[in-house]
Amino acid sequence: MSATNGDANHKKSVSQSPFVSRHIGPRDSDIAQMLARLGYTSLDELTQAVVPPSIVNTSPMDLPDGVDESVALAELKQLASQNQSLHSFIGCGYYGTNTPAVIRRSVLENPAWYTAYTPYQPEISQGRLELLFYFQTMVCELTGMDICGASLLDEATAAAEAMALCLRSPNGKGHRFLISSNCHPQTIQVVQTRAVPPGIEVVLWDETEVVSDWSSVLGVLVQYPGSDGAVWDCQTLLDQAHRHGALTVVATDLLALSLLKPPGSLGADMVVGSAQRFGVPMGFGGPHAAFLATRDAFKRLLPGRLVGKSIDVHGAPAYRLALQTREQHIRREKATSNICTAQALLAMMSTLYAMYHGPEGLSALARRINSQACRLAASIQQAGFRLRHSQFFDTLAILTGDSTESVMSAAVSAGYNLRRIDDATVGISLDETTEDSDLDALASIFGASKVPSHAKPSVATEMIRSDNFLSQSVFHQHRSETEMMRYLRKSSDKDIALDRSMIPLGSCTMKLNAATELTPISWPEFSNIHPMAPAGQCQGYLKMIAQLESWLCAITGYDAVSLQPNAGSQGEYAGLMAILRYHQSRGEFQRNICLIPSSAHGTNPASAQMCNLKVVVVQCDQQGNVDLTDLDEKIAANADKIAAIMITYPSTHGVFEEQVRQVCSRVHQAGGQVYIDGANLNALVGISQPGQFGGDVSHLNLHKTFCIPHGGGGPGVGPVAVKSHLAPFLPRDGRPNGRQGGLVSAAPFGSAGILPISWMYIRMMGSQGLRRATQVAILSANYLADRLSEKYSVLYSGRNGLVAHECILDTRPMSKLGQVSVDDIAKRLIDYGFHAPTMSFPVAGTLM
């Protein structure tokens, strides 16, 4: 789709669009003063001075002109109206849910929560750290496990992380991973994708059959309840796996566990799942908080962040990130995972949902849904249909035989989406939004009479949960809306977010998350769409996605974009896998070396390791640039084994490196591909395109450059953009676009529910507005560097002594004099209400 389609009637110049000036902080008078201090008369003059001429755009981006907020909202509303919001009973891990209004208004729509950064600095993060700690508590209580991380990206990638944990464990000596065919189909596909690089053989098997060959099995994954609704006692199977030295993973449903025996009591080593149905809308696939809970013995193998509870110097409770030496920002290629941004905001919402309802409220919801399923089952059986399973929680698998097509068609005509499990079976998954009128309508689709008011239970007594859960006081204290409102206000007062102060983090762009941009994510036309709904019902989403992909191509200079990766880490993984598949398609299986500069962010080597690439570090010179001599030596030493180089541009040192085209050219000459990390794209938009100065692939961070809020550590979106020769190797998404890559996220378009934010930002800013935002970011960084250079040394600079959109201040001389450390400076900034800059990265003892 052309980037300008549908925009001809709404064009408006930047000077006429008030949004640009509302988005960009400094006024024209401020900009003039800042430029004057630096010795420049215009933003264009500064741009020419700082950006190497060899990479500057020679033509404007092919984007529509920016429009005002009301016009952009009207355009997007028109697209949203093309989605059909049928009541989806498809299930497969996605369910209708009611978001309590107090949580929606006080958290989802409150910048005190959604504009916060990842809680690396605990003194100004106690509110969100506490909620993330209780997310971990909630999951452990419901699953019966010992320890849980502070959220993962989705259920499918959580299952893939569990498989990786099996491999990392002391007894992970096998190479076969068994997956029940009754797991959710998207989970199976993501696990299969992730199994390829480490050489794990994924074996699908019917859980009703006995496993006869346990040789070399490192782990087993089952779904409980099954994807088709079956409630079954998996303890015998788990015990058998343990006897053969295999670890066990159970994918589950948190709401079901308020009624059913927890997997921990059945012998699970790991439990994965999603907290989506705890108050977070489906959103065409995301974002939702996933989890991986495990036993204490595996705590040092957990992926992602973990929040711990300690005490401060006054003896009061204090929360902080724990066991960080597992993570990519410290361990790099030896990390347990490449995950960085997770789903913090959604994890907090789901935790608050559990607090809002309490354990008895969750149990009541579960009993109500199960009762409705039993009543509907009785009615459908009376009409002559049989069920695949007699024990179920919320999902019925109905044997429809030759009637499958007519049943599915009748359901759509009645306003419902059901699941076609196979050609002879239809699935119905009920949820908390189901009313008795829905039951009667569903029954009539099968030719059944009115649903009875009572029916026999569908879960055997021995499978019913008997222990107490969520007994902690926090899950009982905030039942009134007043108490919940005050709790959330007090919690947010413990944190610093963009609603209170600037957050001057290097390498982690923080910018305005405009209220107008966030407005559409709550529209039911976007929030209530199931990711497996028929394409004909999702035309508004698909058109918006195609338009956003087109705009991102125009901005970056690439030819194709996949929006499936739901974080930058997953974008890196998808991009590197595209490179590997490209080499393999050419018969170059020996290419297994990934060159990475020593200054790179930790996700780069961690992602390379996940793809089974060998990391070879390229040194930086004294100016912070890639050392070309060392690069040449590393290329020569590895000859035809170079798969790729991963570089960040501008560099992590805050410099536009002059020789970036040379770096790209030398790797290309060696037969490798160039991966340009998009973490610093905020310094390039409208000025330079990575796809035009040598990049073959980049991931973008929509939660950095394109205004999706950080949410205290997620959600994020990490699209991967590629040149045309890599496009066939992008993750497939169900569209006829020739993409052959495996799924990297559970949903075809990842966290589609928040894509309207970036669509709105680009639509309102337009080409000139986006360029101006970049120029002002560069101006602000150079102005700050100039002002602070009176007291601090700016460690690296580029052309004309200028920096890009960030700079590194060297505080080490102060430490050597025995005055103050970099920690002291950071803490003192916090004392004055400022969020401290990035500390000791990429250079120890400095501030970025």
Q: What do these coordinates show?
A:
The chain has 848 residues and is an alpha/beta fold. Among the domains are: 8-81 and 538-763, Aspartate Aminotransferase, domain 2 (3-Layer(aba) Sandwich), CATH 3.40.640; 118-352, 3-Layer(aba) Sandwich (Aspartate Aminotransferase, domain 2). Helix content is 36%, strand content 12%. The protein has 26 helices and 25 strands. The strands form 7 sheets. It has a 7-stranded mixed sheet, with helices on both faces. Strands 11-12-15-14 form a 4-stranded antiparallel sheet, covered by helices on one side. Helix 23 links the parallel strand 19 (642-648) and strand 20. Helix 2 packs across helix 24, helix 4 runs antiparallel to helix 24 and helix 20 (568-585) packs across helix 21 (603-610). The longest helix has 39 residues, at 344-382. It is globular. The two termini are 40 Å apart. Residues 1-16 have low confidence and may be disordered.
